[in-house]
């Protein structure tokens, strides 16, 4: 079973992804494989750099989507399949990468540094680190444009698909802002309480420091008296 | 008071990163071949011969130089990759090679006397006598100094040594005598000195423990991070160990070197070039860090003190340090 103990971020993807729960797997699987095929046509250097890892399985797990993806590397085009949160993974993955959808797509397109995301704990990685690093380095060099790949995966209908994607991305950006605003509204009262508590803790810390300093002074003086 | 404008030497692990570095204002880009001949032999990283040729063709017309790091140590019976790397570097026209092993330096000096030779930080040469020896016997023209020196020590070397000096200014901190550190070998059997990689990814595991994560290197648990606590590279020197019942960082915190405010001092000390660490980092890091350091170098050259702004999010542990240059903890 997948491990979903760490909660997802409140994001547009979390809300927009809810209808995916209703979508049957076959159309999604078809779309994903079309995208993987298009990716390899546009970036043949990536699978070439990864031939040493043929046969390995990587779980890509967007924490704010109700589905995750299993990427299986091969000698040529990788296979990609979707798994639902409440389903068994068909085969134990060699490694997994979990993070918000926005972080994972930014990483895929090389807009953010993978190590920085990892240092800040926005990415959770388990399993075979060599596989994860090899994939990250190959993708970083490829200058991936996800919009172009998704468009390409629709063949002759690419211009139409790109236009639809742009409209969807525009709607998504507005949704994400709305969800972010909603999140701030919901947590505002708690945040205010936390800020008050932080300020109180800081004051107490300062008092403790002052008390410790005061306690040390007589000890130092006593030491000097002993020496003399 | 205006100071010399220091050469900015920037890392690249992929062709895309090299282009990002050149476009962001790198005077020089350093890189390695995709094998054990360099100290960043990470999976999926580094350059094929063809990619190096294209890299030079991109960098030179834009006024940037390309240095090739051949800075791991050959083993008996397997010197071939190092000889080949030197020959190919000369053939492809790199501006300099960065070498640590005296045998490889000697081979280069004899076979390719016109190929400029820099002494790698991996040689761990930290005083003028050692640099004079390397200069006299192998004709090195520059040395990359270890990250364990204070600014006064750097000044002494820059003044007395018969070669140019290059120092690290930003990126991962190595608190050890580089080229002589065996911590990674102790835990995994592989080290930067021989296999070209510290804490090889094949031996690293992150094991979730509820909200916490356990970091394992080989058979050792070297750290545990609480939920949301910033993390760093999985090296033994940045492991957190229990001593007398208290867990702490015994060697070095997870933190990145950020010596930007010290650039004027380093320039006044006679340093020739500043090096950014991070061939293993993505091109987003390269573009941002090179841009920030370019700004810092220009500021220092104009007589102003650069600040440490805008790069915390890219740093190990989310923060920067002046490192050994200040050495105020001793």
TrEMBL record, chain A:
<dbReference type="InterPro" id="IPR003033">
    <property type="entry name" value="SCP2_sterol-bd_dom"/>
</dbReference>
<feature type="domain" description="SCP2">
    <location>
        <begin position="39"/>
        <end position="140"/>
    </location>
</feature>
<protein>
    <recommendedName>
        <fullName>SCP2 domain-containing protein</fullName>
    </recommendedName>
</protein>
<dbReference type="InterPro" id="IPR036527">
    <property type="entry name" value="SCP2_sterol-bd_dom_sf"/>
</dbReference>
<keyword id="KW-0175">Coiled coil</keyword>
<dbReference type="Pfam" id="PF02036">
    <property type="entry name" value="SCP2"/>
</dbReference>
<feature type="coiled-coil region">
    <location>
        <begin position="187"/>
        <end position="214"/>
    </location>
</feature>
TrEMBL record, chain B:
<feature type="binding site">
    <location>
        <position position="237"/>
    </location>
    <ligand>
        <name>[4Fe-4S] cluster</name>
    </ligand>
</feature>
<keyword id="KW-0408">Iron</keyword>
<comment type="subunit">
    <text>Forms a heterodimer with UbiV.</text>
</comment>
<dbReference type="InterPro" id="IPR051454">
    <property type="entry name" value="RNA/ubiquinone_mod_enzymes"/>
</dbReference>
<comment type="function">
    <text>Required for O(2)-independent ubiquinone (coenzyme Q) biosynthesis. Together with UbiV, is essential for the C6-hydroxylation reaction in the oxygen-independent ubiquinone biosynthesis pathway.</text>
</comment>
<dbReference type="Pfam" id="PF01136">
    <property type="entry name" value="Peptidase_U32"/>
</dbReference>
<keyword id="KW-0831">Ubiquinone biosynthesis</keyword>
<keyword id="KW-0411">Iron-sulfur</keyword>
<comment type="similarity">
    <text>Belongs to the peptidase U32 family. UbiU subfamily.</text>
</comment>
<keyword id="KW-0479">Metal-binding</keyword>
<keyword id="KW-0004">4Fe-4S</keyword>
<dbReference type="GO" id="GO:0006744">
    <property type="term" value="P:ubiquinone biosynthetic process"/>
</dbReference>
<protein>
    <recommendedName>
        <fullName>Ubiquinone biosynthesis protein UbiU</fullName>
    </recommendedName>
</protein>
<feature type="binding site">
    <location>
        <position position="174"/>
    </location>
    <ligand>
        <name>[4Fe-4S] cluster</name>
    </ligand>
</feature>
<dbReference type="InterPro" id="IPR001539">
    <property type="entry name" value="Peptidase_U32"/>
</dbReference>
<comment type="pathway">
    <text>Cofactor biosynthesis; ubiquinone biosynthesis.</text>
</comment>
<feature type="binding site">
    <location>
        <position position="198"/>
    </location>
    <ligand>
        <name>[4Fe-4S] cluster</name>
    </ligand>
</feature>
<dbReference type="InterPro" id="IPR043692">
    <property type="entry name" value="UbiU"/>
</dbReference>
<dbReference type="GO" id="GO:0051539">
    <property type="term" value="F:4 iron, 4 sulfur cluster binding"/>
</dbReference>
<dbReference type="GO" id="GO:0046872">
    <property type="term" value="F:metal ion binding"/>
</dbReference>
<feature type="binding site">
    <location>
        <position position="181"/>
    </location>
    <ligand>
        <name>[4Fe-4S] cluster</name>
    </ligand>
</feature>
């Amino acid at each position: 079973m997948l491990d979903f103990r760490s909660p997802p971020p409140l994001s547009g993807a979390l809300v927009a992804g809810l209808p995916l729960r209703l979508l049957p797997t076959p159309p999604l699987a078809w779309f994903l494989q079309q995208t993987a095929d298009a990716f390899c046509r546009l970036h043949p250097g990536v699978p070439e750099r990864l031939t040493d890892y043929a046969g390995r399985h990587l779980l890509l797990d967007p924490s704010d989507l109700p589905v995750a993806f299993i990427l299986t590397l091969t000698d040529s085009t990788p296979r990609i399949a979707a798994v639902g949160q409440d389903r068994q993974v068909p085969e134990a993955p060699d490694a997994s990468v979990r993070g918000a959808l926005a972080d994972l797509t930014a990483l895929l397109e090389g807009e953010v540094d993978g190590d920085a995301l990892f240092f800040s704990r926005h990415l959770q990685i388990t399993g075979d680190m060599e596989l994860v690093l090899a994939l990250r380095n190959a993708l970083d060099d490829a200058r991936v444009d996800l919009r172009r790949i998704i468009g390409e995966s629709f063949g002759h209908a690419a211009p139409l698909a790109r236009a639809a994607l742009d409209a969807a991305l525009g709607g998504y950006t507005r949704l994400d802002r709305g969800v972010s605003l909603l999140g701030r509204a919901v947590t505002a009262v708690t945040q205010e309480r936390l800020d008050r508590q932080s300020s109180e803790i800081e004051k107490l810390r300062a008092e403790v420091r002052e008390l410790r300093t005061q306690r040390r002074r007589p000890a130092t003086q006593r030491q000097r008296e002993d020496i003399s | 008071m205006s100071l010399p404008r220091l050469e900015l030497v920037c890392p690249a692990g992929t062709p895309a990163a090299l282009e990002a570095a050149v476009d962001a204002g790198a005077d020089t880009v350093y890189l390695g071949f995709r094998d054990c001949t360099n100290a960043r032999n990470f999976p999926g990283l580094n350059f094929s011969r063809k990619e190096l040729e294209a890299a030079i063709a991109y960098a030179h017309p834009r006024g940037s130089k390309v240095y090739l790091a051949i800075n791991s140590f050959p083993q008996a019976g397997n010197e071939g990759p190092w000889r080949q790397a030197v020959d190919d570097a000369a053939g492809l026209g790199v501006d300099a090679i960065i070498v640590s092993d005296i045998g490889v330096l000697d081979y280069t000096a004899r076979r390719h006397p016109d190929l400029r030779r820099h002494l790698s930080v991996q040689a761990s040469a930290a005083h003028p006598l050692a640099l004079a020896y390397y200069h006299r016997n192998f004709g090195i023209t520059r040395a990359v100094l270890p990250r364990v020196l204070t600014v006064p020590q750097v000044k002494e070397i820059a003044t007395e040594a018969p070669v140019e000096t290059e120092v690290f200014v930003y990126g991962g901190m190595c608190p050890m005598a580089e080229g002589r550190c065996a911590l990674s070998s102790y835990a995994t059997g592989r080290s930067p000195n021989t296999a070209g990689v510290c804490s090889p990814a094949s031996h690293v595991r992150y094991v979730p423990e509820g909200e916490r994560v356990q970091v394992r290197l080989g058979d050792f648990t070297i750290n545990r991070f609480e939920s949301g606590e910033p993390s760093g590279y999985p090296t033994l020197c940045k492991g957190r160990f229990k001593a007398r019942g208290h867990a702490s960082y015994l060697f070095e915190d997870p933190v990145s070197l950020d010596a930007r405010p010290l650039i004027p001092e380093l320039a006044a000390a006679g340093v020739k070039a500043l090096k950014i660490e991070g061939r293993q980092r993505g091109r987003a890091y390269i573009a941002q860090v090179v841009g920030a350091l370019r700004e810092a170098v220009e500021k220092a050259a104009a007589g102003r003190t650069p600040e440490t702004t805008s790069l915390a999010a890219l740093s190990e542990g989310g923060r920067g340090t002046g490192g050994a240059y200040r050495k105020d903890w001793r």
